[in-house]
Amino acid sequence: MHGEIGRAQWIQAVAAGAAPEAAMNPVLLKPGSDHTSHVVVMGRPAGTLGARSFVDGGRAHLAEAAFAALDDLASRYDVIVAEGAGSPTEINLRANDYVNMGLARHASLPTVVVGDIDRGGVFAALFGTVALLEGADQDLVAGFVMNKFRGDVSLLAPGIERLAELSGRPTLGVLPWHPDVWLDSEDALDLEGRRAGDREAALRVAVVRLPRISNFTDVDALGIEPEIDLVFASQPHHLDGADLVVLPGTRATMGDLAWLRERGLADAIAKHAASGRAVLGICGGFQMLGRLVVDPDGVEGPAGAEVAGLGLLDVRTDFGADKVLRLPTGEALGHAAAGYEIHHGRITRGADVEDFLAGGREGNVFGTMWHGSLESDEFRRALLAEVASAAGRPAPTAEVSFAERREARLDLLGELAEQHLDVDRLLELATSGPPRGLRRLAPGAEQ
To answer: What positions constitute the catalytic site (predicted)?
Structure first.
C-alpha cells in the first residue's frame, strides 16, 4: 500500500540508497490555512491540527508516532539521521516538541546544529541556539556545521576558534555554497528561478508562487533545461512575456483561488491563455483551471462549499474525504510518462476535454494530476515543443536527462561533504552517541 511522505525525505532516502517508507516521515504537517494544518501520520491522512495544538499539548499522539517510527528504523538500520524541522530552540513550543530536541531526548541522539551562513549572524545563531536550551538538551548538542559559505574559509578561523572556546563545542565543517547543489525540497525558502544564459532566445516559463504552494519540485525538471528561463511569479506583471504559465500544486485550492483573484493574477492568467499561449496546471493548479471546485465533506473548509474555478478547462473537482495515492504510468503527446498522485480531488471532464495524464487538455491549456511527470524526459520535450509552437518560437533542442542530473547533484553533495566535513567524527557520534561532559551554557543551564 502506498503512503505519503515529504519530498525531502524521499530524496534523502534515494541518496542513501534506501527504499523510501512512511517511517522516514512519520508525521507530515501540510498547512491548510494560517491557523490549521492537514496531518498525515505514517503515510495516511489523519485529520487537521489547529495552531493552538502546538502549545496546548494536542500533539501527544503525533509524538508517539514519531518516537515509534524512530525506534522501528533504529532496529533495522545501523545509522539513522534525524533531520529536525525549524529551530531546535523554539522555546515557546519546547514542552510539546517531538521534531527537534524532543526526539533527540527520546533516543539520546547526538545533535549537530547546522547554521546557514548565507543569511548572516551565524556565530550568534549557533551560540544562542545552545545557550537558550535547557540543560538536558544542551547535553546532546555535540557540535556545529556551517553551510553555504562563500569565499576564503580561512577568514572564519578566528570566529570558529572563539565559538569553540565559548561553547565548548567544535565546528565539524564548513560546507561551501555551490550553484549546482539544489535538491528536492518542501521548504518555500528554496523557491528560486533558474535563469537561462541567453534569456532572449530562451522560452520563458512563469511559475505562480501560490501562498500554500506544494510539490513545487515538479518544475525542477524545467529548471535543468538550458533553453528555459524560469521565474516564480506573485504579481500579474510577472507573467508579461511568458510563453508558459504554470500553476503548481497547492495545499489549499479554494484559498489560493481567492488569492489569485485578489492579486489580479486570475485575470492575467486568463489573458495569457486567451492570447493562445500555453498554461499548465499540476494537481491543485489543474483543479483551479476548471469550472468549479466543490468540497462536500469539508476537506478544505466548510462542508458543502463551492468555488468557481478559472474556467479555462471544462472540468469539475469534488473533494473526497479519502486521499488518492497512486504511482501511475501512461502516455501523453506520443511519449511515455510517469508520476505520482496525492490528492483529495476527483475530477469530472466535459465531453470536449481531452484526457491528459489523468487530467485534461483543451487547446493550449493543459492540466495533469500527476506530480513528477515532467521528469519524463521525452514527454517534457514534447510539451515544450507544444509551448514553443503556441508562442511562435523554435522548440528547445537540448537533450538532458533529469535522472542523470539528479544523480550528479547527489554525487556532488556527497563529494562536498567528504571534502569539507569531519565525516569520521560525525560517524563516531552516530555510532557512539553524544560525548560526556559537554559544557552547559547559561541561561539554559539554570532551567
So the answer is: 283 (nucleophile), 371
Catalytic residue among 38, 283, 344, 420: 283
Q: What is the mean pLDDT of residues 2-15?
A: 86
Do 142 and 200 belong to one domain?
no
Q: Does residue 405 belong to any structural domain of this protein?
A: no
Which grid cell is 387?
A: 509551448
371 is known as an active-site residue:
yes
144, β-bridge pairs: 113, 171
Rounded to an integer, what distance in angstroms lies between the CA atom of residue 137 and that of residue 134? 5
- Give 23-56 pLDDT, tens digit per residue: 999 998 876 666 677 788 998 888 777 756 655 5
**Partners of 315 in the β-ladder:** 349
CATH number of the domain encompassing residue 69:
3.40.50
The string of pLDDT tens digits covering residues 403-416 is 999 899 899 999 99
Whether 283 is a known active-site residue: answer yes
Q: How far is CA 307 from the centre of its chain?
A: 27
User: Is the separation of the CB atoms in 244 and 219 below 8 Å?
Assistant: no
Query: Which is the catalytic residue, given 38, 238, 371, 420?
Result: 371
Cell numbers found for residue 442:
547559561
Which secondary-structure segment (H or E) carries 207? strand 203-208
Domain assignment of residue 77, given as a range? 7-182+412-446
Q: What integer pLDDT is reported at residue 443 of this predicted model? A: 67
